[in-house]
């Protein structure tokens, strides 16, 4: 074959794979539809596989196409990251670390990390994105993030996961609720209430842990509302629409008419872990990981 695979082929393929429509993909790329079709056909000839199944009504990916889509997303993301890192390195910086996190990590862990980085490695830049556990794992797989802060018990092969912060849980009640720290005995006193929880999709481990806390107290909670934001949960509690159980550290930074009662005598803890891919070659990432591991070691 006289022609070889080129970067443009990957970009054209990804556009069609995302749109699953040649005309829309061509408009997105600002090229003609026949020209795009020729490029995809050429790519299939070079690779000697069919990437799409075409019919008059729709375009779908083959198994090979699905696999290539994930690889191309990683390749193109990594190229963009490499270009950005090159600029930072040329300016004498270490580079950038892209961090994903759950909201509770912003209460103490991430601010402390940013302060330590600024003090010890001022040449490291950071970018932050608040996203769910699963979204962080997907972003790490596709090289859109370097590290994440998650509440997960397991991660895919090729990942490292290390607990870095352990928190207690607290119940969240409306300000005028008759229970207080003095007369609160256990969660069973709330068995008749509606519960407001973080969504199971947002944090499966958290959701399962709250269920186990209630089941240990002898009841299954009635879940009336779910959210991915602590502010929303607290607002619902404030308006007497239910009660909640959250990591204790989430009580800070919110000025709302709710009160917190710490659950001190239960075995369950809210464990926050950092996660990163073993083969991540970002030199700035190692400094972040070491800082957190040292911090966690000193805390124990």
Please outline what is shown here.
The chain is α/β, with parallel strands linked by helices and 300 residues long. Helices cover 41% and strands 23% of the residues. It folds into 3 domains: 66 residues, Arc Repressor Mutant, subunit A; 103 residues, 3-Layer(aba) Sandwich (D-Maltodextrin-Binding Protein, domain 2), CATH 3.40.190; 100 residues, 3-Layer(aba) Sandwich (D-Maltodextrin-Binding Protein, domain 2).
Structural class: alpha/beta
Main sheet summary: 5 strands, mixed
CATH topology of the largest domain: D-Maltodextrin-Binding Protein, domain 2
List low-pLDDT spans.
none
- State the helical fraction: 40-55%
Per DSSP, the total helix count is: 9
Provide the CATH architecture of the largest domain. Answer: 3-Layer(aba) Sandwich
CATH superfamily of the largest domain: Periplasmic binding protein-like II
Biggest sheet, strands in spatial order?
4-3-5-12-6
Apparent shape:
globular
The number of distinct β-strands equals 12
Report how far apart the termini are: 62 Å
Rounded Rg:
24 Å
Provide the residue-averaged pLDDT. 90
Strand portion, in percent?
15-25%
């Amino acid at each position: 074959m006289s022609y070889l695979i080129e970067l443009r082929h990957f970009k054209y393929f990804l556009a069609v794979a995302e749109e699953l429509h040649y005309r829309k993909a061509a408009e997105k790329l600002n090229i003609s539809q026949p020209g795009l079709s020729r490029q995809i056909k050429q790519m299939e000839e070079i690779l000697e596989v069919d990437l799409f199944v075409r019919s008059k009504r729709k375009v779908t990916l083959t198994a090979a196409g699905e696999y290539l889509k994930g690889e191309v997303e990683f390749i193109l993301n990594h190229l963009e990251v490499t270009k950005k890192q090159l600029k930072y390195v040329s300016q004498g910086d270490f580079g950038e670390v892209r961090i994903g996190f759950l909201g509770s990590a912003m209460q103490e862990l991430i601010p402390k990390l940013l302060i330590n980085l600024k003090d010890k490695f001022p040449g490291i830049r950071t970018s932050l994105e608040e996203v769910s556990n699963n979204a962080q794992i997907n972003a790490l797989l596709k090289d859109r993030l370097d590290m994440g802060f998650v509440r997960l018990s397991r991660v895919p092969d090729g990942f490292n996961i290390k607990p870095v912060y352990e928190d207690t849980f607290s119940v969240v009640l409306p300000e005028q609720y008759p229970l207080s720290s003095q007369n609160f005995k256990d969660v069973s006193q709330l068995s008749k209430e509606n519960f407001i929880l973080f969504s199971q999709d947002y944090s499966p481990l958290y959701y399962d842990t709250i269920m186990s806390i209630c089941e240990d107290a002898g009841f299954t909670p009635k879940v009336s509302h779910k959210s991915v934001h602590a502010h929303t949960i607290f607002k619902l509690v404030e308006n007497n629409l239910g009660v909640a159980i959250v990591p204790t550290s989430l009580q800070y930074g919110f000025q709302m008419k709710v009160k917190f009662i710490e659950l001190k005598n239960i075995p369950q803890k809210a464990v926050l872990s950092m996660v990163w891919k073993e083969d991540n070659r970002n030199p700035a990432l190692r400094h972040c990981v070491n800082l957190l591991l040292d911090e966690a070691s000193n805390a124990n």
